[in-house]
Amino acid sequence: MIHAVAALLFQFALGLTFGLWWLGACAAAGFFMGREHAQAEYRVIVAYYGGKRANMPWYGGFEPKAWTSKGLLDWLLPAGATLVVAICLT
User: Fold this and answer.
1) Which residues of 44-73 are buried (b: 16+ CB within 10 A; e: fewer)?
2) Do the beta carbons of residue 82 and residue 32 sit within 8 Å?
């Protein structure tokens, strides 16, 4: 939930200042998507690849076992919230 609020604040900063509602939505959603992807990589490295990044294949962060429901919601909620605002305000 806090991620969605932070994403909306960033989107509103860009939207109200420059009128760039879609850029704000993409930047905020992209930030949280990247953050959660990195955390998924760290989880899968520790759990399945001996704690070493070199042991993980390039697709390790995309494996379903790397993701938790909280991790998915932490980027889907900001993406959805900013998408709704961008659609409504443009």
Assistant:
1) bbeeeeeeeeeebeeebbeeeebbeeebee
2) no
Which pLDDT score, from 0 to 100, does residue 55 have? Answer: 94
The pLDDT of 12-18, averaged and rounded, is: 94
Return the DSSP state at 58: T
pTM value is: 0.86
Mean pLDDT, residues 17-44 taken together: 95
* Angle (nearest 5°) at CA 35 between 30 and 40: 125
Mean pLDDT over 58-86 rounds to: 94
Domain boundaries, the chain: 2-89
The helices-and-strands tally (H runs, E runs) of the chain is 3, 0
Residue with tokens 């001996």: 50
Q: Please provide the distance, in angstroms rounded to a whole number, between the alpha carbons at the two ends of the chain.
A: 24
